[in-house]
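User: Hi! I have a protein structure encoded as tokens and I'd like to know what sequence might fold into it. I'm fairly new to this, so please keep things simple.
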């Protein structure tokens, strides 16, 4: 994700180990990824809220070959669409998962891991 003014609050939250989502005070919709208006009603009355972190696996793919050498140590890993408890769906990585037993509908919890040189990014773990 870029470091633009639009996602500055998201980036700052990640640096603190907090997943920040936009919330529309006009209609109550919570959204991810950051936008300048509400995707549900078009209003610009957006604020930022902290997500609790639980979610459900909506879809996923197993990655068994790294496209970049820095991901080699993660193999195999899972890239998934996660339906967050707050409503939005986001793409992320599921870490420490048995890629052969993971299923759509599994519950996941939020975690963070270093990504790149100096950034933390939200990732998920299968809930116990």
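Assistant: Happy to help. Inverse folding works backwards from shape to sequence: for each of the 128 positions I chose a residue that suits the local structure. Here it is:
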């Amino acid at each position: 994700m870029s470091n633009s003014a639009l996602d500055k609050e998201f980036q700052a939250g990640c640096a603190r180990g907090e997943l920040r989502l936009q919330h529309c005070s006009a209609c109550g919709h919570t959204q991810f990824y950051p936008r300048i208006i509400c995707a549900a009603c078009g209003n610009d009355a957006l604020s930022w809220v902290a997500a609790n972190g639980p979610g459900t696996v909506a879809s996923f793919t197993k990655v068994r070959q790294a496209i970049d050498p820095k991901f080699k140590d993660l193999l195999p890993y899972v890239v998934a669409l996660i339906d967050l408890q707050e409503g939005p769906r986001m793409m992320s990585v599921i870490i420490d998962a048995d890629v052969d037993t993971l299923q759509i509908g599994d519950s996941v919890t939020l975690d963070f891991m270093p990504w790149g040189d100096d950034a933390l990014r939200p990732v998920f773990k299968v809930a116990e």
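A useful reference point when you look it over: The beta strands are 20-24, 30-31, 46-50, 55-63, 77-84, 89-94, 107-115, 119-126. Feel free to ask if any position seems puzzling.
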